From TrEMBL:
<dbReference type="Pfam" id="PF01636">
    <property type="entry name" value="APH"/>
</dbReference>
<feature type="domain" description="Aminoglycoside phosphotransferase">
    <location>
        <begin position="32"/>
        <end position="237"/>
    </location>
</feature>
<protein>
    <recommendedName>
        <fullName>Aminoglycoside phosphotransferase domain-containing protein</fullName>
    </recommendedName>
</protein>
<dbReference type="InterPro" id="IPR002575">
    <property type="entry name" value="Aminoglycoside_PTrfase"/>
</dbReference>
<dbReference type="InterPro" id="IPR011009">
    <property type="entry name" value="Kinase-like_dom_sf"/>
</dbReference>
<comment type="similarity">
    <text>Belongs to the pseudomonas-type ThrB family.</text>
</comment>
<dbReference type="GO" id="GO:0004413">
    <property type="term" value="F:homoserine kinase activity"/>
</dbReference>
<dbReference type="InterPro" id="IPR050249">
    <property type="entry name" value="Pseudomonas-type_ThrB"/>
</dbReference>
<dbReference type="GO" id="GO:0009088">
    <property type="term" value="P:threonine biosynthetic process"/>
</dbReference>
Length: 338
């Protein structure tokens, strides 16, 4: 959690948000939260989510853009968690704070259950890729209703402003610029770039009757489709819900089935797949920056400091993070289905 946000949050803010959505306080349960305060509550025998963010991260209009995109995907038949209005009929409730405002939003609770190690198999990998392919295909026809609602571009995320959070002599500042320069050299078109989830990892969807039900569009923004794929691969390959003896074989197995599903719904070119390793490495670098944003690194214990140094070493290295030739694997997958 960003420290400036955490320091301003009070019980009074939560109480006011609960009031504006007419929630029974006895049903409210904290779910924690990484960048926002997230709660579960019950109303009319159904479950909902209350999320409280801050204008340090997102503007009111920015969140309206998220909700509009959610509605668009829902209308396209994708299983996503829809937003619900407050008692005043507002999709976003603004609550004044000492510095800026807190923004409260409520969503329907996603159907289904959390992914478990029993679900972690080829069928899931393929459905995962298929769902992301559907988003990328659908977003090619997306237009915002109000220019003010347009979501941010991927290279405008606050964590990419490395100079704000890192020491001036930190090597990650120049490394990050290099990685951004490389990724932004990709051509932009409706077939390569658009508004998408940008955080489609295994903790942001449930399984309902075997199908994916996606939620948490808080980070949705404009990015290259290959970067969006890279974000998913970073989490799925680096942090699987199951241990694999031969990690390299697991990487290949996941990628083959994921891309097989993806190519059912959307096309992508070999020239784009070339950038997958860079996208994965960039995501790793963002974790390093986020850690500085959320913590006082001058007061870390030895274990945390060693972890941070290792994170920096891997993020700064020119070597691929994962020992897999994505281009070669992609060729094999593409040729097998054409």
């Amino acid at each position: 959690m960003i420290r400036e946000i955490e320091e301003q949050f009070t019980e009074e803010i939560l109480t006011e948000a609960i009031k504006r959505f007419d929630i029974n306080n006895d049903t409210v349960r904290s779910l924690g939260g990484y960048e926002s305060f997230v709660y579960e509550y019950q109303k009319n025998n159904a479950f909902f989510i209350l999320k409280i963010s801050h204008t340090i991260r997102r503007s009111r209009y920015n969140i309206r853009g998220e909700i509009e995109f959610l509605n668009f995907l829902s209308n396209k038949g994708l299983a996503v968690s829809n937003a619900v209005p407050s008692t005043r009929g507002n999709m976003v409730e603004e609550i004044a704070a000492e510095n800026g405002s807190f923004l409260a939003i409520s969503y329907e609770m996603s159907l289904g259950k959390e992914v478990s190690d029993e679900d972690w198999n080829e069928s899931l990998y393929e459905k995962w890729g298929e769902f992301l392919g559907k988003i990328h295909h659908a977003t090619k026809g997306y237009e915002w209703s109000n220019p003010a609602f347009k979501r941010h571009a991927w290279d405008q995320e606050v964590q990419l402003k490395a100079e704000k959070y890192l020491r001036p002599d930190d090597v990650m500042i120049s490394i990050l610029k290099e990685r951004l320069t490389k990724l932004t050299s990709l051509p932009k078109s409706k077939d390569t770039y658009g508004l998408t989830h940008t955080d489609f990892h295994q903790s942001n969807f449930y399984l309902h009757n075997g199908d994916i039900y996606l939620f948490d569009f808080d980070d949705c923004g404009y990015t290259y489709f290959v970067n969006d794929i890279g974000i998913t691969l970073y989490y799925a390959l680096s942090y699987p819900f199951k241990e694999f003896e031969n990690k390299t074989e697991y990487y290949k197995l996941f990628f083959r089935h994921f891309m097989k599903g993806y190519l059912k719904e959307n096309t992508i070119q070999e020239e784009e797949i070339v950038y997958l390793q860079d996208s994965i490495k960039l995501r790793h670098a963002l974790l390093y920056i986020y850690f500085h944003q959320a913590n006082d690194v001058s007061n870390l214990d030895e274990e945390s400091m060693n972890w941070l140094k290792e994170l920096q070493r891997v993020a700064a290295s020119d070597d691929p993070m994962l020992p897999i030739d994505f281009v070669q694997e992609f060729k094999s997958i593409y040729n097998s289905i054409h």
